[in-house]
């Protein structure tokens, strides 16, 4: 690869919409793209998708974070997958936008904390495009809405409701896993786990906050545009 080709790669964020794909297949896809980014064959990439019902257990979680037994979850067609991302138990399913950025953060000059903050900012900016005000909570990862920052809405919960979760892994300076934004998610599925290690954690969705329908596909386009802007890259769809 010559210097002109390398320079072109470094100015592009390649995004791909995968539609609905099971967790294991998406993980395999991530690893393939990870290898291509590390080798310089591909530019930094963003995989966007929905998962069928699945509970994932991160490196800091185990079955103690399952409120419903494995057997009952499996009988209800909810997959359980132990994965290598950071964080604890979470749920993915229809109506939730999942984004897997595969970014050479070392080349971009981003540390792990700075990278996570950038993902949170990208989600907040995406929500703003739909008229939803997102915010951070001290000591927590992810994005929230409402709470004391929105007292005019009469919400009692001091921190509000969680609308997006983040769990990442960085290997060799390149990221895997990423973010999950509740767009029109059936929130009842979160009752089967202790999400993010926080019992009784309240959740919401973009649709609930708006009182109007929004598609996961539309949100995927917005979040790709915002991430590309925050990275200073040109967005390219494959």
Put the structure in a nutshell.
It contains 7 helices and 11 strands. The chain is of the alpha/beta class.
Can you describe what's shown?
The longest helix is centred in the middle third of the chain and has 18 residues, at 112-129. It is built from seven helices and eleven strands. Helix content is 31%, strand content 26%. It has a single domain, classed as Bira Bifunctional Protein, Domain 2 (BirA Bifunctional Protein, domain 2, 2-Layer Sandwich). The two termini are 21 Å apart. α5 (112-129) crosses α7. Mean pLDDT is 89; it is low at 1-8. With 238 residues, the protein is α/β, with parallel strands linked by helices. The chain has helices at residues 3-10, 23-39, 70-75, 105-108, 112-129, 206-210, 216-231; strands at 12-20, 45-50, 54-57, 79-82, 89-92, 96-102, 134-135, 143-145, 161-171, 174-182, 234-237. The relative contact order is 0.19. A hairpin with a 7-residue loop joins β7 (134-135) and β8 (143-145). The strands form two sheets. Strands 7-8-9-10-6-2-1-11 form an eight-stranded mixed sheet, sandwiched between helices. It has a three-stranded mixed sheet with strand order 4-3-5.
């Amino acid at each position: 690869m010559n210097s002109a080709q390398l320079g072109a790669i470094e100015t592009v964020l390649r995004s791909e919409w995968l539609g609905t794909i099971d967790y294991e297949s998406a993980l395999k896809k991530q690893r393939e793209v990870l290898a291509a980014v590390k080798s310089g064959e591909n530019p930094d990439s963003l995989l966007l998708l929905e998962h069928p019902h699945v509970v994932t257990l991160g490196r800091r979680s185990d079955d103690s974070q399952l409120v419903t037994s494995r057997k009952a979850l499996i009988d209800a067609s909810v997959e359980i997958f132990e994965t290598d991302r950071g964080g604890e138990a979470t749920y993915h399913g229809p109506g939730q936008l999942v984004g897997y950025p595969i970014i050479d953060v070392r080349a971009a000059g981003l540390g792990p904390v700075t990278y996570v903050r950038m993902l949170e900012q990208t989600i907040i900016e995406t929500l703003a495009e739909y008229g939803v005000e997102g915010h951070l909570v001290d000591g927590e990862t992810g994005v929230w809405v409402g709470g004391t920052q929105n007292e005019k809405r009469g919400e009692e919960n001091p921190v509000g409701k969680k609308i997006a979760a983040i769990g990442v892994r960085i290997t060799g300076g390149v990221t895997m896993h990423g973010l999950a934004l509740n767009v029109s998610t059936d929130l009842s599925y979160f009752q089967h786990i202790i999400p993010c290690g926080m019992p009784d954690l309240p959740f919401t969705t973009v649709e609930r906050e708006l009182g109007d329908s929004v598609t996961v596909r539309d949100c995927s386009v917005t979040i790709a545009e915002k991430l590309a802007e925050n990275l200073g890259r040109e967005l390219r769809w494959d």
